[in-house]
Fold this protein.
Amino acid sequence: MSNVKERIFGAVTIMSEKDAEKIWELIQATFALGNAEEVPAEPEEIEALDAYQNGNPEYQPCYTHEEMLKELGLEK
């Protein structure tokens, strides 16, 4: 076993179950994102992002931060 793997294993064995669960979720998320395919943005998405970045006062996001977290399955 490599030095890095030994250190990870040692850290996990002494942490709480709750903390170990958080680490597991981070590992899963890392691999899920690593396998994600990049998709080009749609013209409407680019237009909305440009309006947001340029401070257009008429721009209204479709989702609140909380709604987006829920949509992505990341709400706490």
Notes: The chain has a mean pLDDT of 83. The chain has four helices and no strands. The first helix runs from residue 3 to 14.
